[in-house]
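Sequence in, structure out. First:
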Amino acid sequence: MSHGHVVLTRNAGSADLRVDATRVGKDLLVTLVGGKAHVGAVALGGFHRRSYASVLTVPNHRDDIIAKEAALRISKELRQSCVVVVGIHVHDASEGQVTEIVDASFSLVNELIEAFK
């Protein structure tokens, strides 16, 4: 096992993103926020023969897409449980900005996984 705490940042044009992960025993607690930070969705990921994730989402938020995929990737690659909290908000973001934010978010998640391998 690697680090106990990792913080990574990335600019996604219209939003500065920050992922912060802390070991909780052998598992991970991860927050991924950007723009106007908030709690928009929470995913619980785990691994038992395959990765799985369950998600809770605040109504009218789309953070669940990133939260679920992040939890699936983390649990699959690290073979452990994780909680991923996502809250990214950019007012009136264009589809291009949304795509840039989603791509940068997953890039950060991949970098985070490598840091914990």
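Second:
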Amino acid sequence: MRNYINKLQADGELRTVDVEVDPQYELAAVTKKAQLQSDDAVFFKQVKGTAFPVVTNLFSSRRRLCELIQAEDGNFCPAWNKILDETASMSVDCTRRTNAPADLVSGKLSDLPLITYHGKDAGPYFTSAIYLAKDPDTKIPNLSFHRSMYVSDDELRIRLGTSHDLAKYQQKAEKKNAALEAALLIGVSPALFLAASTSIPTHWSELALASRIAGETIETYRARTIDLEIPLAAQIVIEGRILANERRLEGPFGEFLGYYVPAAENHVFEITSVYWRKDAVFHSILCGSSEDLTLLETVTAAKMYRHLNNVLPGIVDVSCSPVLMNTIIKIRQQYEGHARQALMAAFGADLDFNKAVFVVDDDVDITNMNEVIWAFLTRGRADKRTIVIHDVPGFYRDPHKDHWGRLGIDATMPFGREAEFERKLIPGETDLNLDDYFK
């Protein structure tokens, strides 16, 4: 990650904050306002109460995500699915044991930046930490994100979503009345970060996916207190175990949908060792920000793109921006009713996030919701191009059924009438540089 930070700085995509900032609210406030101005990463040199610098907004740019997977044409979905296809044929054993780094420094949890993001958060949270654990049966390693509330130097409280692999591992261990060993990795390489953000079949290894993204074997070393191999590319490591048959109060916390998740009895992570590389940089993610959502939206869109291309022709691209709970499908119409078929195919492709689905023609920018709504409003009747499916379960964490139901919107032009909907253009507009006019 330090190499990636240096690259962003060299490319002029890193903004540096020299003044000291408070980790309680101020760091999050600066992050949020900076993200409204640009996709540049933000580097906080001085954070009150810690010796660690903090970096944020590393993965908020879709263009940079495309660069990380060598999608030079800007088309993330096909490039990402090619990587997944190649990962499927890789051996799970894609790591190489090496010695632990000579510059490791031991410490305690409170030495790290303890960042409180929102006004009603129960306390500081680790939001960018990646949990590394092994399936108790198959021993296949898994990487995943789970919010972690700081309680003391000995304890974190974490929420495990029921559909996540780590929750299944914990359940397996708990049935044997055993704790599940795990490590939190903070400040990892982009390849490890992208791999951890992706949902893949349980018999695959996220380390194999990271190896394919990086184009090299993942070097690891033996953990200090638990039976795990720690990736060399992790700057900060928190070792411990998820306790069996133990739940304690966690939350509230400002989640990605923009609301507070209320306090609830959640899992307990007992700390056994904390250490870091010399000159380590702490990675912070503001939950629900562009850095949090852009990557999740992009890999979710790639999953949808893969599914749709398996069942229908003419699928050009897919986006899940701007709020993840929606899907926008770009098609090249092949026949009358093509858009409606795409809507119906999309509804069954993702049972969590597909609350609203839009289908547009291939001249529409699917990352711009203004364009999508414009297409719907100008290309046909509103009453004939909307589908509402009632009483279908939605997002898995939904006790009040607020996310039940599906909305489908056909925003394509009538098939066979393309000439009537040719978009107006100004010659030379695309290549014009305003800097040549405003000095």
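Remark: The longest strand covers residues 236-250.
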